[in-house]
Amino acid sequence: MLETAPTIKRRILIADHNPLVVAQIARGIDDHGAYDIHTATTAATVRDELQHTTFDLLIIDQAMTHLDELTQLRQTQTHARDALTIVMMTVSTHEVTSLPDSLYAHHYLAKPFAADELFSIIDSIFAPAPINPPPDPIVLKVILGGDANVGKSSLVQRYCTRQFDPNRQMTIGVDFHVSDVQVQDTPVRLVIWDLGGQERFAFARLAFYRGTQAVGLVYDATNRTSFFNLMRWWRETRENLPDVPVLLLANKTDLPRAITCDESLAIAQAWDMPFFESSCATGEGVTEFFDALALAAWQHKQTHRNKKRATG
Question: Per-residue pLDDT for the chain (312 aa), expressed as one digit of tens each?
């Protein structure tokens, strides 16, 4: 018959000048969970306990820190600073701000406090660390290009916040937003750069192409000029990013269209890029476009990584 290893109890020291308070807290913690509880009603006892016993948690009344016997508390706990967590019980928030720098607490509890409030803190302190913590997200940079007023900023706002502001101001120069997504079951932090569409910002835009994994070219489906200017955006993109995937998006499709779907598909096929349609006002097609942009960026990054590994 296999014997199970004994469970090691967390050791808690409760300190307060009032023995009734100490007894009440100890009784509540004992009922809440299985802990090795020690108590103290004088500063000298606290110091003695800390010097001779290793504790996981110290719950101490702030008034005890005024006594000369506790001047060495910081030195006593320094050797086990990572192991000992301190919960300080106070009477007011003013007491917290007036505490000397020589003292340190992880949590503060203002008296009187509910037992559940203390239990919640204890549970958070002793909560087991996840066995397999989630990995840090992979950062992918994507950019949106296109003329001013085609709705790039509104697209990002709709995607990141699920909201639409018809009075949103145009981007001056460059703006960026961050969205955490899943791409093929991998956490990804999508950094979306919104390039200002005004011609006077063309020179300033060039530096922001560096490190980009995918590009979305956006035009206004109600504005033929923005459609014709796609050639300029395509040329600028390819001069700076010759092998990065590019997606084409017709925005504002909820309004009367000036460019037919067939015209859009023709240019998308000529430039060998996927074509999407969206409406910031209704939200239709927005998520699908950004999901595809993230996937294209992810695949591009993986391809480059594999090429580096192959070449050593």
Answer: 444 445 678 899 999 999 999 999 999 998 888 899 999 998 888 888 888 888 888 898 887 765 444 445 545 554 444 457 888 887 654 444 444 444 556 777 878 777 888 888 888 888 776 667 667 788 899 999 999 889 888 898 888 877 766 555 544 345 667 888 889 888 888 888 887 644 555 555 677 788 899 999 999 999 999 999 999 999 999 999 999 999 999 999 999 999 999 999 999 999 999 999 999 889 999 999 999 999 999 999 988 877 777 775
Tell me phi and psi for residue 46, to 5 degrees.
-60, -50
| Sheet (strand 174-183) strand order | 174-183, 186-195, 138-145, 214-220, 246-251, 275-277
Q: Which helix (H) or strand (E) holds 239?
A: helix 230-240
Type of residue numbered 16 = D
Tell the residue number behind the tokens 């913690």, with chain if given: 29
CA angle 309, 193, 217 (to 5 degrees): 90
What is this structure's pTM?
0.56
DSSP assigned state of 33: S
Report cis status (omega within 30 of 0) of the bond before 112.
yes
Q: What angle do the packed helices 152-161 and 286-311 form, to 10 degrees? A: 90
Which tokens hold the place of 242? Answer: 């010759």
Question: In 146-185, where do the E strands start and end?
Answer: 174-183
Residues 6+ apart with CB under 8 A from 169: 153
Going by C-alpha positions, the residue among 300, 289, 215, 213 that lies closest to residue 251 is 289
Q: What are the structure tokens assigned to 67, written together?
A: 């006594």
Residue type, 10: R
